[in-house]
Amino acid sequence: MKSLKPFILASLVLVFTGCSSVNDSSSGNSLVEGDWLIPRGEVVDGGPGQDGIPSIDDPQFSVASNVSYVGETRIVTGIKIGDTIKAYPHQVMDHHEIVNDAVGDTPYCLTLCPLTGTAIAWERVIDGETVEFGVSGWLFRNNLIPYDRKTGSRYSQMQMRGINGPESSTQLNTIQVIQTTWSTWREMYPDSQVLTTNTGFSRNYSGYVYGRDYYLDENSGTLFPVQNSDNRLPNKARVHGIIAELPADQNAQVKVYQIGLFGEGVHLVSDQVGGEDVIVAGSTNYNFAVSFHALPEDGTELNFEPVQDELPFIMEDQEGNRWDLFGYAVEGPRQGEQLAPTNSYTGYWFAWADFFPELSIYRWNS
Amino acid sequence: MKKRLTYPLLVLAFLIPVDLLGQTCSCAGAPLISSQSISSASKGNLLVGLTYQYNDISNLYTGDTQLTNRSVERNTQSTLLEFNYGITSRLTVSATTTFVRKQRTGLLNPGNRDQLTTQGIGDGLVLLKYVLHQNTIREQYQLAVGGGGKIPFGKSSLTQNGIALNMDMQPGTGAWDGVLWSYFSKTFAPASTINFFLFNTYRITGTNERFGSDDRYKFGNEWVVNAGITDTFLPNLSYIGMINYRSTSSDERNGQALPNTGGKWVNLEPAFRYQVSQGLSVKLSGQIPVYQHLNGTQPTTAYTASFSLFYNFGKRVIF
For A27, which of B112, B169, B296 is closest by C-beta distance? Predict the structure, then answer.
């Protein structure tokens, strides 16, 4: 009977400690506290934990014409700040999701959520102090929740605002970015700076983090549940969405433009979103879409016409100005002027529909 | 001669290392159950095993390439209590319960430590095992087959302050699984005291509905093959050398394969066992990965270490 004791004891331990438990022994800004601006029940742990997907905090760049690791049809996200133009291939970004970078006096982070296909950049300054952002490890409706390493606040990437912690409700100061294919980008900006694979981490940068199939139009699968499923478009159709006004919560007025329907060459759409005139430029074969407020600062009504085969020029107007992909007048009397970017970004349809269930789709005239 | 045969087989029965059916995807080590370790119990005998296993899941692989600069450290600690009871001389029922503790620690931001620990009762397994051929002096091999089910006792819906934790941090799977099992062993008496064994397990996984009834998650089916030898080299002290092959298909969500899940592993599993008394034995074992080819990029086991107690209640085992 004596020999039975260990087993009896073990059985009792199993029975009486049977209650499952979670112990968060995190410290500092890793703790989960406070209220959320989004339904907490829809926030999920993506698996890797905070910083389990490591941000790139010391990004290295090479001139585009010297870069050979990026596939021709792979997507890159580009940014233009002053005269500096940079590109961030998703082949690298998929593994890190956040790059803490700076151009001149503008520190910013570029964020990419591979699951929703959304790339958004914002200035990384809080109370006058430059801060780093990292990957919290959580997701809201499949979308990245970054956090800042100063206050520990969490942010919704697609809502572009703080959602938990001291910076809750703070609207992020975004910087316009553009998604397109590497072949298009390299042709447009051969002298631009391109993020290299010298990230400080060894990862398989030639592959697809979530499998090649995940990114295909015909693959409707998502890794986590979709709350507001909308079958008007294929889940993975890439769309450019414009949010009429902030905050970008579920009540926001949103309109999306399917990149696959712009057609060959550059096409322009003059439209209204939330009562504002906007101009949307896009191309199916070059795989991009961008949008701007149609009226320049002085309120002059410009009549835009698309420019073909001269990327990064995308349009010209009756004054003789030629505008580039980032909305800058690069030739003509308004040279140096920039059309104000809209609150917009590009991503997968399912994510747009999930975040903004009341959104509308631009109807093309057949 | 009977004693000569019985003792090695008793050793064999107890020694075959616990093989944890890695439950998830990424971690190749979220433990489920062992219980394939004992081929059979003689009629009326109750064999009880208690195992503690530490699984260090700190390697990071993409395909068959190890990645450096890992950002997360994980471990899973499991306690398994298994019962094997001989209903007849050929039929044995096995039942295993588990208690699981999982820990995930971020490595990149030490000033703000991110550490999460979950624990709770894990899933259970019930198997019926039938000996098709008993080992005899003239025909020195044993062949047994079995089948049963994994029962989702463990919670699969733990949250961290209301935030749903990932499946690889849950103690349970939330799914009923079917399990098929077979076992073969061969002795070579009187020429040698070495015993050879081979057993394999196939798990046909069910689905859980942790995000609602219209959202179905299915872990990948799993096949585990173990082959090895065991022998006594000092009085009451035995060794075992085993090689383990494990293959899992990708997990699925609503019928679609999920990236970064599934793969193939080959491990070496050395063990030592000491016979404390006629009924009680202890065992130390480990697992060392020698090859893995993972789908996508996944954390995976760097090593495991296990300690087991086995006790045989009842008369001596006669195979």
Answer: B112
Complete edge-to-edge strand list for the sheet that includes strand A98-103: A98-103, A106-113, A118-123, A174-175
**Chain B partners within 8 Å of A4 (Cβ):** 311, 313
Residue-wise pLDDT for B200-242, tens only, equals: 999 999 999 878 778 899 999 999 999 999 999 898 999 999 9
B-chain residue closest to A13, CA distance: B99
Residue A366 CB-density burial (10 A; 0-12 exposed, 13-18 middle, 19+ buried): exposed
Q: What is the bridge-based pairing of β-strands A360-361 and A254-258?
A: parallel
Token pair listed for A65 = 């014409």
Q: Considering its fold, how many domains does chain A have in total?
A: 2
**pLDDT tens per residue, range B52-102:** 999 999 999 999 999 987 788 899 999 999 999 999 999 999 999 899 999
Whether B120 contacts chain A with CB within 8 A = yes
Do A21 and A110 belong together in one domain? yes
The CATH number given to whatever domain includes residue A340 is 2.102.10
In chain B, residues with a C-beta closer than 8 Å to the C-beta of A100 are: none
- Asked whether residue A228 is domain-assigned, the answer is no
Compute φ and ψ for A304, nearest 5 degrees: -90, 140
Exposure of B125 in the CB half-sphere (CA atoms within 13 A): 34
B234 vs A: CB within 8 A = no
Instruction: Give the mutation candidate from A19, A45, A149 for the B interface (greatest B CB count, under 10 A).
Output: A45
For B163, the closest of A32, A52, A149 (CB atoms) is A32
Residue A257, amino acid: Y
Within-domain flag for A222: no
Residues B8-28 pLDDT 10s: 433 333 333 322 222 223 333
Place of tokens 């790339």: A119
pTM for the model stands at 0.89
On chain A, the residues whose CB falls within 8 A of the CB of B105 are 49
Which residues in chain A have their CB less than 8 angstroms from residue B78's CB? none
What is the topology classification, in CATH, of domain B8-318? Porin (2.40.160)
**CB distance from A13 to chain B under 8 Å?**
yes
- Give me the residue spans of the domains in chain B: 8-318
Which residue range(s) make up the domain with A243?
238-361
Q: Is residue A124 part of a domain?
A: yes
Task: Name the closest residue on chain B to residue A152, using Cα atoms.
Answer: B112
